[in-house]
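User: Is it possible to get a 3D structure for a protein together with its bound compound? The compound here is adenosine-5'-diphosphate. I've pasted both below.
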Amino acid sequence: MSAENNTFLKNKNLIDGQWVDADGGETINVNNPATGEIIGTIPKSGKAETARAIEAAQKAFETFRKTSALERSKMLRKLHDVIMENQEALARLLTMEQGKSIVEARGEVGMSAGYVLWYAEEARRMYGDVVPSPWADRRIMVTKQPVGVIAAITPWNFPSSMLARKIGPAIAAGCTAVAKPATQTPYSGIAWGILCEMAGIPAGVVNILTGSASEIGGEITRNPHVKKVTFTGSTEIGKLLLKQCAGTVKKVSMELGGNAPFLVFNDADIDRAVEGAIAAKYRNSGQTCVCTNRFLVQSKVYKEFVEKFSAAASALKVGNGLEDGVQQGPLIDMNAVESVEAMIEDATKKGGKIVAGGKRHKLGGSFFEPTVIADAKPRMRFAKEEIFGPISPIFKFKDEEEGIAMANNTVFGLAAYFYTSDLGRMFRVSEALEYGLVGVNEGVITTVEAPFGGFKESGLGREGGHQGIEDYLESKYVCVGGLGL
Ligand code: ADP
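Assistant: Yes, that's possible. Here is the predicted structure of the complex:
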């Protein structure tokens, strides 16, 4: 399938049910990171278009808030169905703009549908409370209602599923939305507009804008109609948006950076750990916020793990994600390649030993070899910074206490993984880790049923699980008095 005949490749923005260009007609080119080809041009919208989208969402909210939970649940079920009916086209579009393998892209689209179905179910369970009253003649009720217009800003690494986690609960709660996907991967975001139309979701409920991030973000955070901003992206931009939201005291949800540790204890099943390590590291070419940033391996099994893991990393098939059997696609762009190279150079200068990969891939462009660096040390940049690329630094620790201390020695706290066969250690370590998600003897753990989110500077709030709808709701206490008792 070429880019041209994919139904979901739409070069327009969706405002109030209308597919439109930017006011000035300005556009931005979008390219395929595997081939460098331009696959389309998207509108470069800014402040004025954003203000109109927010106004449309506010207008739509006045009626949408009155729909019943059952009606919204049915809309989401239909949305789930149209996503699954179009899974292959959506997956191919995703691979074309983002680079990940088609197998991973299909998985991501399936996950998007999964979030939508989960929130179709949760829509009907937004229970309030009837609380025992301290007054004989009064009754106390606590009800839930939608916050209003929400704005969603999403990154390029999961261009479909990051919007699913935001649009799904928003619709379930009865909110309306303005979404801004990342400029590198806008089509999987714009596709949500087409899918919502196919599912019969009313005009203005979901609006999609592409263009100047600072202008769109500026208007979203300034506009008093927006009651909640939900952001997934870098810690740097997350902090900026938090500041900008302060002026109108918006609710905020932030899914920010990570620095995931992956601990392998002496008593671990090493083959299982290697398998989990490959999945936890090289998925999406290392470009996820839950990808392992630091492998921490206990002394006795260090050598064995390094040997087996570097052999498995070297065996990964790198190539265009649309080709059969490819496990690692290109990095998102050349800036990403340069950033990865700089980290490798820093590590080798400080005594790191490259045991797999280490350089640009012979395919050229932004393809990069799966890389493993042994003898990693705390003074190397990746000890503190997020790598967001296919480099695996391997540090050594001597005992459980040191392993935990090293794992927690970061400002981030999103995902952590550890491998052990000792039941006591399983509880001790999982309780000691300052992380929002912990995988024990598993390297890939994200699922729609469980809450996803970070401790510390990795973010605020949770997405997925029954928790994921809370930030889209206000609680209201109603006191009914004068009962004549
Ligand atoms: P990454 O490093 O993964 O690209 P960013 O935080 O830069 O992470 O981008 C995540 C999302 O935030 C993207 O949609 C991007 O366009 C958007 N973004 C970047 N800068 C701003 C900004 N100043 N205001 C609002 N959104 C922004």
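The two ends are 72 Å apart (CA to CA). The pocket of adenosine-5'-diphosphate is lined by residues 153-156, 180, 182-183, 213-214, 217, 233-234, 237, 240-241 (CB under 6 Å).
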